Amino acid sequence: MNEKDKPTFEEALKRLEHIVERMEKGDLPLDESLALFQEGIELSRICTRQLNAADEHVRKLVRVENGRFVIEPFEPESPPSQGNDLQF
């Protein structure tokens, strides 16, 4: 999945909520449940990465040196590759 194919945080979260609602009904065939579960895991990872990046950005914006706030340029870090894991 390339950068422009990645959903926004809000899109990923909305899709994840939809998946949870469908799976909670308990009426899906096993193969569809597994496919939705896998998609949900991938969406969860996307959301986690985006939240972690936002958290790091906030930390850099409010870092204090000698009683003064310091704003630093934000450079998102790429996490190490983990198999088929999607990268943010």
Can you give the helix content as a percent range? 55-70%
**Assembly state here?**
single chain
- What is the CATH class? Mainly Alpha
Q: With helices defined by DSSP (H or I, 4 residues minimum), what is the helix count?
A: 2
Q: Which series of helices and strands comes N to C?
A: HHEE
Number of domains: 1
Structural category is: mainly alpha
Radius of gyration, in Å, reads: 17 Å
Shape: elongated
Assess the beta-strand content as a share of residues: 5-15%
> Any low-confidence stretches, pLDDT <50, length ≥5?
80-88
Write the layout of secondary structure elements.
Blueprint: H1 9-25, H2 30-61, E1 63-65, E2 68-70
Antiparallel strand pairs: 1-2
Helix pairs in contact: 1-2
Describe the structure.
- By secondary structure, the chain is mainly alpha-helical.
- Helix content is 56%, strand content 7%.
- The chain has a two-stranded antiparallel ribbon with strand order 1-2.
- The protein is elongated and about 60 Å long.
Quick rundown:
The protein is mainly alpha-helical.
Defining key terms:
single chain, 88 residues, mainly alpha, Helix Hairpins, two-stranded antiparallel ribbon, disordered C terminus
